Amino acid sequence: MPDHNAPTDKASLRAAALARRAALDPSSRAAAAEAAAAHALEWLGDVAGEVVSVFAPIGTEISTDPLVRGLRAAGAIIALPVVIAKDKPLVFRLWEEGTELVPSDGPGFIVIPAPPADAPMVEPDVLVVPLAGFDARGHRLGYGAGFYDRTLARLRRAKRIEAIGYAFSVQQLPAVPAESHDERLDAIATDAGIICPAED
């Protein structure tokens, strides 16, 4: 039976998913990150020579460290997203092993770790996407700035790209409201497994 008292607006859904994420204890987080990485690597398959953009987690986001280790071991080229301006798509800088990340301006007043400014720009073949919440249809609830929607729209016009959400399973929502500009994910990797959305 549906919960008619469940929130349906994006702000309330985001708050609910983020609260569940924040409530996870450190040991659960670490185990979940390892499990999600294993599921993501299995779904991605052979990534040797492919440029894979991951994200440097901030706040209570799931750790991408196990995923990065697995991707590097599999021969992937790792990149990280960089914000260049409000209302513009993200760009991507190469993150070579051993390179220390530096603070970079993110959305609003957020500072995100990024490769140094002299790191080469690259175009990803795979985009690992952070999110606040998601549903089984592949709809992503972001943080409200629209960077990944703009970026995915640009990349998908130019080339074939795989977009995989990466999150804790507790962030799953019954349904995320979808708008015309929202870009759907190809899959979501969580500690509970892979969600491969069916076509609507």
Automatic annotation (TrEMBL):
Reaction it catalyzes: (6S)-5-formyl-5,6,7,8-tetrahydrofolate + ATP = (6R)-5,10-methenyltetrahydrofolate + ADP + phosphate
Gene Ontology molecular function terms on file: 5-formyltetrahydrofolate cyclo-ligase activity; ATP binding; metal ion binding
Biological process (GO), any one: folic acid-containing compound biosynthetic process
Annotated binding of ATP, by residue: 10-14, 140-148
Chain sites annotated for binding substrate: 61
Enzyme Commission number, as recorded: 6.3.3.2
Cofactors that this protein relies on: Mg(2+)
Keywords noted in UniProt: ATP-binding, Ligase, Magnesium, Metal-binding, Nucleotide-binding
SUPFAM superfamilies listed in its UniProt record: NagB/RpiA/CoA transferase-like (SSF100950)
NCBIfam families, A to Z: MTHFS_bact
Family statement drawn from the similarity comment of this UniProt entry: Belongs to the 5-formyltetrahydrofolate cyclo-ligase family.
Identification of the protein by name: 5-formyltetrahydrofolate cyclo-ligase
Source taxonomy: Bacteria, Pseudomonadati, Pseudomonadota, Alphaproteobacteria, Hyphomicrobiales
